[in-house]
Design a protein that fits this description.
This protein is of the alpha/beta class. The protein is built from 13 helices and eleven strands. Helices cover about 45% and strands about 15% of the residues. Bound molecules: (2S)-2-hydroxybutanedioic acid.
Length: about 325
Amino acid sequence: MFRTVSKILAVTAVSTVLAVGSAFAAPITIKFSHVVAENTPKGQMANKFKDLVAERLGDKVIVEVFPNSQLFGDNKVLEAMLLGDVQLAAPSLSKFERYTKSLQLFDLPFLFKDMAAVEKFQKSAKGQELLKSMESKGLIGLGYLHNGLKQLSSSKPLKVPADASGLKFRIMTSDVLAAQFEALDAVPLKKPFSEVFTLLQTKAIDGQENTWSNIYSKKFFEVQPYITESNHGVIDYLVVTSTEFWKGLPDDIRGEVKKALDEAIAFGNSVAAEKATSDRQRIIDSKRSKVLELTDAERDQWVKAMKPVWSKFEKDIGKDLIDAAYSSN
Ligand code: LMR
């Protein structure tokens, strides 16, 4: 009798501790680190995600957003993620080369003719498969986020490929992008995003490639007198987390977090579409930088100069993937 009573008391005590424990369990913190300004598609997507999670998951999950490379630059964030120091990031698709060769696909010059083609490919079965291409390395893609098509900015007017010969261009950490500039007889330099403005301002480099919203929000147009509207490639993002963190979340919370993320991505994509037009116009209106449009004949010359890069990377990326992406046009 005595033993039964003490057993009951012990069980009650344990369940009370558990109940109290879970009622007061520390909230899960999701640190979201990125490199761009808050007033960009990615910056706004991250803030939207934070707001949605705060609204829906209250004190169970807290999202902390660190913009402008405040927490980690783009050369460190994935390592930090694998160490558990950051839970969410959205590096450009050009920055995963150490973890997978498949995503190099998105760097091939003149692969997609517009953002509709990018979207169509990303939504296809092959595009969705790529989200899982780094699972064995401990990273999992939760979705794609748009920024937009890339333009070439420079200290001198670039109308034809020969104009770029000998110039130094900052690139993201991508061998495809290095090959793209080497095909122009230019000099590519892999540098973190956080250093680009200073490199341009001090004329340590002559140019760079980026989207309208990045050129505008980071003021590259103030230190680059010419921007060629080349639309020669794309900067899109992979919203990424560590497999360990993601699988470790309780099922119901993971589901809610994913839902908030999908909604934030849809919002970010609408910002991206709007900024591709409005930030371009702001740059033109500033008169700090001259926007050069290409004739069809000039554009053909850029295509001819850059497209041989495709065959160099065909083996690494996979011809079937390249064909599938190209057929989205
Ligand atoms: C860059 O490094 O130029 C971009 O990837 C920055 C960004 O995240 O948009």
